Each structure stands twice: as C-alpha cells, then as structure tokens.
Amino acid sequence: MNPAALRAAALDSTQPAIEQLRAIVACLRAPEGCPWDREQTHASLRSGLLEEAYEVVEAINKADDANLREELGDLLLQSVFHAQIAAEEGRFDFDHVAREISEKLVRRHPHVFGPDSCADSDAVLKRWDEIKRIEKGAAAESALDGVPGGLPALLRAQKVQKKAAKVGFDWSEASPVLAKIREELDEIEAELAAGHAARIEDEVGDLLFSVVNLSRKLKLDAETALHGATGKFIARFREVEVLARDRGLALEKMSLPELDALWDEVKAR
C-alpha cells in the first residue's frame, strides 16, 4: 500500500475499529511514519507491555470504567504493535494471532462447542489442563511445568502452589500453614542471632512463600492483598505527613517513637 493510501486507511473511521487501529500502527511503522515507532522492537516494548497490563489491573481495582476502557485500548495497542512488527518480518500478522486464539478457545471448551459436559468451574479447569497436555504432544516432565518464570514473584508462587495442590501436595486446611509461617519466622530469628547474613534472604523467601500459601488456603489473591496493604500504607503515611506539617514538624527530624505516635493517631481515626 502506498503512503497516501496507508494514511487514508489510518484516518478512515468508517471501517471496523480494529482495522483502523491496524492501519494506524502500520502507518506509524512505515518509512514515512513516526521515527520512535519505527525504532521499536519486541524487546524494546517489553516494559511497556507489562506497564499497560498493570494499569489495566489498577483500573479494575478502582472500578473506573472510563479508565479501564482507555487502559484496555493501550493493552490492545501492544498486541497490534507486536503483530505488526512480526508481519513486517514475514513471520505472522494480527489475523494469525486472532485466528489462533479463536481456535484454541473452541478446542478447549468442548463443553460449550462440542459434546462434552462440565458440572462446575473445577471440572472446566481440569478438562482445560487435559486438553492442553494433549496439544503439547508429550507428557509433562513435572506437574509444575507451564508456570512462566517471568511472572511477578507472588503470582508465580501462587500458581506453583496451585499446580502442586492438584496432585495432592497440599494441606487440607489453613492451620498447618500458620504453623509453617511461625516456623519460618523462628528460622529467620535464629539466622539473625547467629549472624548468618548470607542465609537471611533464603529464609525470608521461605517466609514469603508460606504467606502466599496461607493466602491461597484462605481463598485470597496474595497479589491483591499486598496491593491493598501497600495502598493503605501510602494513604496513612500521607496523613502522617499532613499532620506533621500542620504541627510545624519535619518528619526527617523526628525520632521513630515520635513518628510512631503520629502513625497511631492516624490509624485510630
């Protein structure tokens, strides 16, 4: 498509929205397009992809539809952009991406598009895993296969624990997990007392892994729980800052007991 036709397609709002978006990205990537967009690669866009995904999550957490709509658009742009780069290199294009996920969804939902039946969500997930294993064409080497190493640490721990639980490697209730957390705390205290600095990171990791396990047993999402706790800390700390300013105090010049007193005052509100 020549530059004029490509630009016309990018500006044609009468065509399906996804087609206009594809045309816009193709126009931006064209020799006459945007220098920044032309320089991008799959690798250079990685951080942006992660950032957009997290911004979608934040919009969901805030129940902000206007922002969610915008952030989903930004995330969709990432998919279209990566597909355009691949298309320019003759590897695949957006149609291949859309067709492949459509075919996968149909294959993995035989209880909707085929003769199978599933009584509940657990049965659906079990059937999904069975079909996935068949598609891979070989038996998994481990029950923990399939968990991406690039996931955020809490989410990765949660997924690993769920996979282990599927083969019975799991406590039936939360109380043994609480005991494990206490055990990990004791081990950290012992390492600190012994001055084994090199082993502290390992023990703290064990503690965090056990806390994630507790969240899972309580049917909580560890990532969401920590996100909420961090947000609560930010809100309270800002109130401490306001309180200090109102009283003519500078936080950096206050002692920890004085800061704790302001924190307790804010917390009691």
How is the topology of this model organized?
Layout: H1 3-11, H2 17-29, H3 35-39, H4 46-61, H5 65-88, H6 94-107, H7 110-113, H8 121-136, H9 153-166, H10 175-194, H11 197-217, H12 222-246, H13 256-267
Explain how this protein is built.
This protein is mainly alpha-helical and 269 residues long. Helix content is 72%, strand content 0%. It is built from 13 helices and no strands. Helix 1 (3-11) packs antiparallel against helix 2 (17-29) and helix 12 (222-246) packs across helix 13 (256-267). The longest helix has 25 residues, at 222-246. The N and C termini lie far apart (64 Å).
How many strands, what sense, and barrel or not for the largest sheet?
none
What amount of the residues lies in strands? under 5%
Helix and strand element order: HHHHHHHHHHHHH
Number of strands: 0
Q: Determine the N-to-C terminus distance.
A: 64 Å
| Gyration radius, rounded | 25 Å
Keywords, separated by commas or semicolons:
single chain, 269 residues, mainly alpha, 13 helices, extended
Q: In a nutshell, what does this entry contain?
A:
By secondary structure, the chain is mostly helical. The protein has helices at residues 3-11, 17-29, 35-39, 46-61, 65-88, 94-107, 110-113, 121-136, 153-166, 175-194, 197-217, 222-246, 256-267.
